[in-house]
Amino acid sequence: MVTTGKTTSSNPSAWLCDMQIRWMIRRDMPEVLEIEKKSFEYSWSEEDFLNCLRQRNCIGMVAEHHEQIVGYMVYELLKDQLHILNFAVAPGHRRQGVGTRLMDKLVGKLAMQRRQEITFEVRETNLAAQLFFKSRGCQAVDVLRGHYVDTDEDAYQMAYSPFGSDVLRMDREKKNRLADWDDDRAAA
Ligand SMILES: CC(C)(COP(=O)(O)OP(=O)(O)OC[C@H]1O[C@@H](n2cnc3c(N)ncnc32)[C@H](O)[C@@H]1OP(=O)(O)O)[C@@H](O)C(=O)NCCC(=O)NCCS
How far is ligand 1, taken at its centre, from the CA of residue 123, in Å? Predict the structure, then answer.
C-alpha cells in the first residue's frame, strides 16, 4: 500500500534504519506504478517497466519500509557506466533520505576498474530532481535539446563519479547555459 501523507515518524533516522533496499520483483508492480503515476506527468506503464526489466542489462531496485514500497530505481548496466532510467520516491516519503539511500546503493555498485560513473537525464523543468542530484554531488555535463518526445522539452544530461570529476566520461567544457545553471540554482 502506498501512503500519500507525510510519515508520522518523529525520528527520521530511526525510520530509515527500518528501510531495506532489494531487487524489484513482479509483485511490487502495483505499488511501483502508484508511485510512478503520482510522480510523473508522463509516467511509465506496467508494460514499459516489464519490457525494460526483461532486458538482461536492466535492473530494478525498491526501497521498502515495513513491507511498503516507498521508492524505486531502474537502471541499466552499460559498458563503462550505470545509467538511471527511472527513479522516484513516494510523495509522502520525500525529504526523508529515501532517494539518497537509493543513490548510495547505486554508487556502491561502481568500481574503479570498470563502471566508474552514473549518468542520467533530468527534465529542464524538474527543479526538485535537479536540486536533489546537485545535493548528491552530480554535475550537469550537457543539454540535450528536445530530448523528451512527449513535450519536446530539453534535458540536462548529468553525471556522477565518486572517483572525481576528471573520470567523467562526458566531462567536457561546460556550455554557457550549464555554467549559468549552477549559479541560477545556487541562487534559487
Ligand atoms: C528526486 C527525488 C527522487 C528525491 O528523493 P527524496 O527521497 O525526496 O530525496 P532525499 O530526501 O534523499 O533528499 C536529499 C537532499 O536532496 C535535496 N532535495 C531533495 N528534494 C528537494 C526539493 N524538492 N527541493 C529542494 N531540495 C531537495 C535536499 O538537499 C535534500 O536534503 P534535505 O532534505 O536534508 O534538505 C524525489 O523528489 C522524487 O521522487 N521526485 C519525483 C520523481 C523524479 O523527479 N525523479 C527523478 C527523475 S530524473
Answer: 14
